[in-house]
Amino acid sequence: MFRVLTLTIVSTLACSVVVCGQSNERRMIADHSQKNLTAEDSQADGIVQIKIGQLFKPGDTTYAVIDRKTLAGLPPLPTGFVAFRDQGYKVTTQAIASGEHAVIFYVPSVKSADEFSRLVVFHLEEDELSPLGKSWEPVTLVPGGWDKNFFQFTSEKAYGQLVPDFASRRIAAIVDEFGIFVIAVIPDTHQVPKEPFTQIEFLASSSPESMRTNEQVTHTLTIKNNGPVRAEEVNLRESVNPALEFQSATTTQGKCTQSPRSMDRVFCHLGPLDVGSTATIQIVARFFKFTNLNEERTSARSTVELVFKKKATDFTDITTQRIVDFDTVILKANP
Length: 335
Description:
single chain, mainly beta, six-stranded mixed beta sheet, five-stranded antiparallel beta sheet, disordered N terminus
């Protein structure tokens, strides 16, 4: 399923924009509405329009074409996908702005509607669940993807104007931040899985089930591959309840690390899990001393997300993901 984000367009945009590429350098100019940036030369494949989100301070925005050699040094695209024309695009800005930003691509070299329908825009994003630290996320706007409960700043009509259009050879992506983009081609055999490729047994428990405020608690997470296929990559993330303070994490395989972005998150990269194999993780936490307990018994719920893949570059979907919530009961210590 392709991910879509909301779009905010400000009424003014006082930003000088130059597009610098490793090849086919192009310059972006502000259009008459001063809301958008458009390409001065739009005769070749590339970015032709950028819609800035909320702009707080103007600054130069540039983009460069990324060639095959540079792409080879980045994380691989999802299984089966290949970069269209063996190139990508890097968008940077010196402006201070918050998303969401729309990046619109023009692909006049595509000659058939069938080829156009197989194009997807990917954005390279931070990903704690990936051992590489980054992964490609599909960010293409798709027909029928507008949801009034999801989009706060764009109407259904405005959304419809950004969905892929073969007649104009334009395809759009919306992101919170700029960075690296690739237009990729969907493989002929690409299908959405209907069931998991292997059976993963996943259990989570808290010991002791009821802890005092002066005690520690151990969360034990057990993952077993019941077959019939080996999982090439298994990753896990626990969001520890804020009432608990992370102390340590151990695992029978791979490595567990506290997130540098949040003291409450722990992620583990376990590597491959063969059929019949079991991996056990123990996360130790203690009561967070600055937590106010209003009741004698307080339930602290933590959430664990498990992702397992047949190939490391496979998409994560509902068939290869497990999310488990479990509670630790905190008892007030005797005064």
